[in-house]
Design brief:
mainly alpha, globular, 8 helices, about 210 residues, two-stranded antiparallel ribbon
Amino acid sequence: MAERRWPMAVAVLAATMLMFFAPRHAVVSFWWIFPVIQLVLLGALIVADPGRIDRRSTVLRRATIVLIAVMTVANTLSALVLIDGIIAGIPDITPTILLGSGAAIWVTNVIIFSLWFWELDRGGPTERMMGSGVPVSFVFPEEANTEHAAAQGWEPTYPDYLYLAYTNAISFSPTDTMPVRMWAKMTMMIESAISLLIAILVVARAVNILPT
């Protein structure tokens, strides 16, 4: 059965809202361009293929990849601005603002990597639905019980990839889902490294500026 689009759409909206409401210390001067582009692309995807993701379309897949790429660039710039500010010393910043900025970037990072996993694994949601036989990149625990997976017609959907990205970001390693292709291993490694860097820099700086 085709996967519903709304979980992915909610995740994109959440990341976009985090960009809108994040403290200005963690965004670039032209920050508003990115959420506008994200909303336009998401709206186009929903209009072109609403409800369930059941259309094999090169245009739609490219639009999805562009959307995730825009989100990646936006969050990377925000992270670089925040890191530069921490290293250079942001004047008059409070621990609350610093932790809020870091948390917004960290959560957005989890969402972005979950979208990459979701779109690239097994050829994407449409190819998974059609059973096109694209090699797997991640082996989920449900697939360990092949009888259960076959009986239920189980295929991973967006929440499975969100959980994968979250556990990888918080534990800095795979948990119950294993990457089995090189791109998946390298992408998980990059996500863990970003998550660790944000945590170390933000928490260390926040503790340093706490009133004594």
